[in-house]
Amino acid sequence: xxxxxxxxxxxxxDSASDIPILATPSTGSLLLGTILKEKxxxxxxxxxxxxxxxxxxxxxxxxxxxxxxxxxxxxxxIA
Length: 79
Description:
Blueprint: E1 3-8, H1 27-38, E2 42-47, E3 62-65, H2 72-78
Parallel strand pairs: 1-2, 1-3
């Protein structure tokens, strides 16, 4: 089976407002990772809201970047 890495980008507050953005782990990556692991794949999940990984050390057959509107710019940077 394949080795798969799931990456959830961190939300950065690019706006001029002082409204804080709460960092919460992505449940989508956790759910997808669980499904893939149950199918026999070797899965690693990296969530930037917890810790930013060393991307040059990720060695996987497939890398998935999970994103939404608030994290899309960071997802583009990672890609």
